[in-house]
Each structure stands twice: as structure tokens, then as C-alpha cells.
Amino acid sequence: MNTEALFAEHLQIIDRQLADAMAGSGLSADAVLIHSGSAHNHYADDQGKPFRAWGHFLRWVPVDRPDQFILLRPGQKPLFIPLIPQDFWHDQHLDMPAWWSKHMSVKAIADLSELAQTLPESLKLAFLGENTALAQTLGIPKKLVNPGALLNWLDYDRAYKTAYEVARIATANAHALGGHQAAHDAFLDGKDEFDIHIAYLAACRVLDHELPYPNIIALNKNAAILHYQHKHRYHSQVRGRPENQVLLIDAGCRSHGYCSDITRTWCTPGIHPVFAGLLSGMQKLQSAVIQDIHIGMSFGELHEQTHLHLAQLLIDSNICRGLAEDLTRAGVTQTFLPHGLGHLLGLQVHDVGGRLAGHDGSILAPPAHYPALRNTRRIEKDMVFTIEPGLYFIPMLLGRLRQSAAARMIDWSLVDLLTPLGGIRIEDNVWIKSDGVHNLTRRPLLDS
Fold first, then answer.
1. Listed residue (270, 252, 269, 273) closest to 261, CA to CA
2. How many CB atoms lie within 10 A of CB 60?
3. What is the pTM of this model?
4. Pairing between strand 428-433 and 384-387?
5. Is there a contact between 212 and 287 (Cβ–Cβ < 8 Å)?
6. Does residue 336 sit in helix, strand or coil?
7. Angstrom distance (rounded) from CA 215 to CA 246
8. Exposure string for 104-137, b = 16+ CB within 10 A, e = fewer
9. Is the C-alpha dihedral spanning 189, 192, 195, 201 positive or negative?
10. Helix and strand tally (H, E) in the chain?
11. How far apart are alpha carbons 242 and 219 in whole angstroms?
12. Which residue in 24, 80, 132, 198 has the most C-beta neighbors within 10 A?
């Protein structure tokens, strides 16, 4: 199917989901008004922060702008109410291609004060969005503003992606892969973190604020900082410029609001042979974990299996001694992999609903010994999530391990040699189908 047909089908599916959510949550309203969000300035400034529309709005309308509205009445054509100010300071043009706009009614307003008169009369409205003061001016009762039972239902359903959503995530993956290749080439050319980042942006032809999240461009020891936020600049004239040995790049793109989230780790040919072996081993480990996935298993079970795989790799690399089960039981592998195996992916990088047990909002808490696990749900058809095992040499965590009873399991001289190289993460985005797993990063689907 082409994009328009996929979007039309998508609207039919999420319209049924909304009807079920309104009925199942006991919502006493005829319609739901969803707000994209509000623009916000920096404190004591007139410069705005980068805006990101709310996922529940973007699921209906691919317009990433503040103060846009969608009025939803199950079984009826959605009403899109874009705010298009009469403004000569900024470009206010709003592109509304027919592939999506023909499937909804459109009534533009020039000021928020016009919103109330644009809404059909005699509708009992529920309001979803951050501007609760605006909801109050519309006369919407407080109990119908962001009702928790409705949001829980909608959050739970967002884990199941329509064919349109899968196509968008796949396109975002395809878009990002060119940037990853450019970053790899810049790394091997000896470029610094800043130049590698610029190479990624140029290859993808995106601006920083258009990325789904700030790129992580980490050289050498910086790869051990999980959300490393800097892009260091070095100049060849400055003595002591670090030699490129390891690059960890965690970077994605967006397609009509839907995100990709890809991580690769690269090393130079002269790297320590044990680290080179670890990188090869982690690539194989990630592939094995993806092959382990099957419908019905819990994501927590997959996470537990990953730690056993990691323990064996640490033993085979002579970093640790003992049995894999003993290493995981002693918490050793948590030192080398302190984050979760993955998370739901969609309109948000860490998409909503990862710990929901059902529509009622009940929570599936992560195991006490793996508190960082973001996805605890059972794996089901049409879910899209990341698989991102890592192996890091984090000085703070290694220091704690060195003081523990499990320290005897570690070859500390080898760990000390590897610590300046930071670490490794390999991350792909996978789609669960009835007949297996489709890796959207290795085999991105493109629009037909």
C-alpha cells in the first residue's frame, strides 16, 4: 500500500481504539479534543525552546507545531483545527498534503480565542493536553481534563503499531543509516566528536532540533557515559589531541513524528585485541538475543537471557572467571550492563506504556535487581522496540565492584587496560510479526 492508503487504514484502526477506550474507561463525554502542546520560552527570555508535539496528537495528525487541535468523535471524520497566526515575524505556512488532510475536516483559526466558536455546539468534551487552563476556558469539567483512565487505555494501545506506523519507523531507520555511515567514515578519518556529529547531520540533511533525541557521539572513554551529552572540538595544532580508537554513536531520525533509535560502535584497526574481540562478541550477542525473541515471552525474560549471554562473553574474554550463572547472581554483569535491554519505540523514543500490564493502568514493575528495565510487557504481535545490549567500563561502577565480594571474579589488570576505551552498545529497532521478527534497522521498509 502507498502512504495515503496506509494512513487511511491507520485512522480507521485508531478510531476504533478510541471508541473502545472511551467506552472501556467509562468516559462521560461525546468527543475528545487533543492539543498538540504549547510553545515555551527560556526563563526570563523571549527565545523559545525547541517544540515537540505530544505523541497522542501526532498519532492523528503529522503536524509538529504548537497549538494545533484535533477533535475526535468515534465513527466521524476528525476535525483538525490548526492555529495559523497572522504574523509577519515568522513563517507561518502550514503544509497539508492531501495524503493525510483529505481524511479530515480542516477549520483554521488565527488566534486561540477563536477555538471555542470553532467547536460544534452541544458537545460534551474531554480534553487531552498540557494547557489545562485553556480547557477551563472552554468550560470542560476538571474530571474530563486528562482523565487518567482514558490515558492509560490509550497509552497501552500505543504499543501495537499499525502498518502506517511501522512504515514510518522503517523510513526513519533508512534515513538514519546514511548518517551512521558518514559518522563512521569521519571517525576513521580522525575527526573529533563535533565534526562526526556535523557529518551525521549533513548526511541526513537535518538540523539538531529535528532529531528524535540529541545525538550521542562518544569517542574512547566517553563511550562509558551512557547519555554522553557533549561534542568535543579538538584542533590539530593542540598537543595531546586524543587518538581515535573507539566511536560509540547513538543517533536516529524522524519520519512524520515517528522515531528511529540506532547505536553502533566502531574501533580502529590497532585497538587492543581483547576489545576488538568484545566488539565482535557483542555484535554476535545482539543477533542471538534477537533470534531468541518469540511471541508470548516477557521482555524481562529476554533481558535475563541477555545477562547470561554477556556473562559468558566476559568469561570467554578472560575478563571474568567462574560460571555465567554465578556472575549474574552476584550482580557482576550489572556493572558492565547497567541499563535495560530495550524500550518501546514510536512517536516517542522511549514510547509510552512499556510497564503497563493492561488497559486499567496496572503496572508490571521491573525486577528489583534490574530496576532500569523500561519494558516489562509480554512480547506481542505488532510491537516495535529496541534491542540494545551494551558492555561498558564505567569507573564509578567498577570502583564499587572492586570493593565487593565479587571482586575476586575479575581480572582487574585487564579491566584497567580496557577502561580508557569506554564501552560498546549495538542497537537495532525490531518489529514483531506473527511469523517472526523483522529487523527494521538491518532491513528497513521503504514507502511503496
1. 252
2. 22
3. 0.96
4. antiparallel
5. no
6. helix
7. 16
8. beeeebeeeeebeeebeeeeebbbbbebeebbee
9. positive
10. 14, 15
11. 9
12. 80
Residue 438's pLDDT is what? Answer: 96
Is residue 447 scored above 90 in pLDDT?
no
pLDDT tens per residue, range 17-71? 999 999 999 999 999 999 999 999 999 999 999 999 999 999 999 999 999 999 9
Q: Check if the beta carbon of residue 447 is closer than 8 Å to that of residue 2.
A: yes
How many other C-beta atoms lie within 10 A of the C-beta of residue 337?
Answer: 23
Res 92 pLDDT > 70: yes
Q: Are 373 and 405 in contact (CB under 8 A)?
A: no
Q: Which residue matches cell numbers 519494558?
A: 375
- What is the rounded average pLDDT of the residues 286-305? 97
Q: pLDDT tens digits, residue range 159-200?
A: 999 999 999 999 999 999 999 999 999 999 999 999 999 999
- Which residues in 230-261 are b (16+ Cβ under 10 Å) and which e? ebeebeeeeeeeeebbbbbbbbbbbbbbbbbb
Instruction: Supply the angle between the helices 148-157 and 3-24 in degrees, to the nearest 10.
Output: 140
The rounded Cα 26 to chain-centroid distance in angstroms is 31
Q: Which residues have a Cβ under 8 Å from the Cβ of 81 and sit 6 or more positions away?
A: 68, 69, 70, 71, 106, 107, 108, 109, 115, 118, 119
Among 389, 377, 384, 385, residue whose Cα is nearest residue 296: 377
Q: Between the CA atoms of 40, 168, 13 and 100, what dihedral angle is there, to the nearest 10 degrees?
A: 70
Nearest to 336 by CA among 297, 309, 363: 309
**Using CA atoms, how far apart are residues 205 and 199, in angstroms rounded to an integer?**
10
Within a 10 A sphere around the Cβ of 163, how many other Cβ atoms? 16
Structural domains of the chain ordered from first start: 3-157 (3.40.350.10), 163-439 (3.90.230.10)
Percent of the chain at pLDDT > 70 equals 98
Q: How far apart are the first and last CA of the chain?
A: 7
350 phi/psi in degrees, rounded to 5: -95, 85
Q: Residue 159, class by beta-carbon neighbours within 10 Å (0-12 exposed, 13-18 middle, 19+ buried)?
A: buried
8 A C-beta contact, residue 140 and residue 129: no
Q: Which sign, positive or negative, has the C-alpha torsion 187, 213, 258, 20?
A: positive
